[in-house]
Specification:
The protein is α+β, with helices and mostly antiparallel strands. The protein is about 25% helix and about 30% strand. The chain contains three helices and eight strands; from the N terminus they run H-E-E-E-E-H-E-E-E-E-H. It has helices spanning about 15-20, 60-65, 100-110; strands at about 25-30, 35-40, 40-50, 55, 70-75, 75, 80, 85-90. Strand 2 and strand 3 form a beta hairpin. The longest helix has 15 residues, at about 100-110. The protein is globular, with a radius of gyration of 14 Å.
């Protein structure tokens, strides 16, 4: 019977995000129903318990990125949209090089932001 979960040997989503961001020394914080990855005290992504990856993105790119496979609006609970700064990506969109490609969008937005004071 097929499942939406990645094979056991591919690592959990938090492990995969941790490995992909290792060179940036992220700080991990329990938040948004999973583990959020903070770089320079700003959240870049969160590996949620449901298997989705939550990304902080450039709101100007929201509609374009939402059209990509695996992307969906980020929700806080079942009925509250998080807004155009956020996007969720399901497991299908994170297969293969998908995780790194999605993280690149979040990291690009992160790099364009003014560092916190």
């Amino acid at each position: 019977m097929p499942t939406d979960r990645p094979p056991a040997d591919s690592g959990s989503l938090p492990d995969r995000v941790r490995a992909a961001l290792a060179d940036r020394s992220p700080r991990e914080v329990p938040m948004f129903g999973g583990i959020s990855f903070m770089i320079e005290d700003r959240m870049v992504a969160a590996a949620r318990r449901d298997g989705d990856l939550l990304l902080r993105i450039d709101p100007a790119q929201h509609d374009r990125l939402l059209a990509l496979p695996g992307a969906k609006p980020a929700m806080m609970g079942p009925t509250r949209p998080m807004g155009d700064n956020w996007l969720a990506v399901d497991g299908v969109g994170l297969e293969g090089a998908g995780l790194e490609a999605w993280l690149a969008h979040a990291l690009e937005h992160h790099a364009a932001q003014t560092p916190p004071r």
